[in-house]
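retry 2 of 3: previous attempt timed out while embedding cobalt (II) ion. Reduced batch size to 1 and resubmitted. Inputs unchanged:
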Amino acid sequence: MKPNLSTLLGGMTPEQFLADYWQKKPLLVKNAVPGAEKLIDREGLLALATSEDMESRFVSQAGGWQMRHGPFTLNELKRAGKPWTVLVQSVNLALAAGDEFMRSFDFIPHARLDDLMISYANDGGGVGPHFDSYDVFLIQGMGKRRWRIGKQKDKTLIDGLPVRILQDFRPSHDWVVEPGDLLYLPPEWAHDGIAVGECMTYSVGFRASPSQELAEQFLMFLQDRICLDGRYRDPGLKRQKHPAEIGTAMIDQVAGILDEIRWNRDTVRDFLGASLTEPKPHVFFDPPARPLSLTRFTAAARKRGVALDRRTQLLFSGRRFYLNGESWTLPKDAVPTIRTLADQRAVGPLPVLDEEAMADLHSAYCDGFLHLG
Ligand code: SIN
Ligand code: CO
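retry 2 succeeded.
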């Protein structure tokens, strides 16, 4: 189930979409992903919601809004009062088909792409009118859903509910979507999707950190890299009138020490590379049971190529590569091949690469970060 770019944006090029819609206005595309309902069925999704490895939520309106975190048992779901919906996060990490589906949106940089969430709702189910802080593509899988959306200023939520529900939802558009239809919503647009009969919806979500969070994370990153010499000293100390006073000489000296904390664009690049490729907390890799030696791996990769594990994040900036939180600088000759691997997540028979690059690929293979093609 790989969405096709010729229909995904209703005949628009990604360039046109980015110029006119991305982060600007919503877009509804009828039949953007023909056959979208084949990606996963209700049983498949509910099975994921029973797994401890997945992050899932159950939202019900029976007797007021309720929300619970998974995993769930199938019996528990069967017995629940309707209408309800189950939402499973990061389906792309669990299913190769989900990963392939999400990757079709790679006209947006990988660094912005977050995950594929899939929901199942029975008739009348949904998570209520709310807004999200992220861009989202909502693709209709099985069944129909009524979407009402609006760009309202009033973002007040109802107090004391376990789900984020807008107090005064004022939709300006009202559509019933069918399997394969796509709705793009920029951040902060209010929306409410109500299942018309039972239905499933796929959300391709993006990440965009709040400035405060970026700053806090950057300072933590910097903390591990700071290396300042010397120590506070005061050989010229004069007796103070007030022993309790923090003297100006002390403030000046410490301000001077702190002025030595430096960072530049390379530090920022390394921070982004490390933080954007850091695996999510519940992600674990499966190293090969009997890994090939470097020599045999090299021979096999030259014949078959290599592919990233679907949980792997590989990004780059110039010659610097970031693989699941670790950084690599590659010799010039290896750069085009590993860039292809990062962009396309797989690369055909490998050319002869520098020994060091091959050793790095082999070690990534031993960690389960990539596999032979
Ligand atoms: C859903 O799939 O039910 C919720 C998607 C959303 O409104 O963000
Ligand atoms: Co939403």
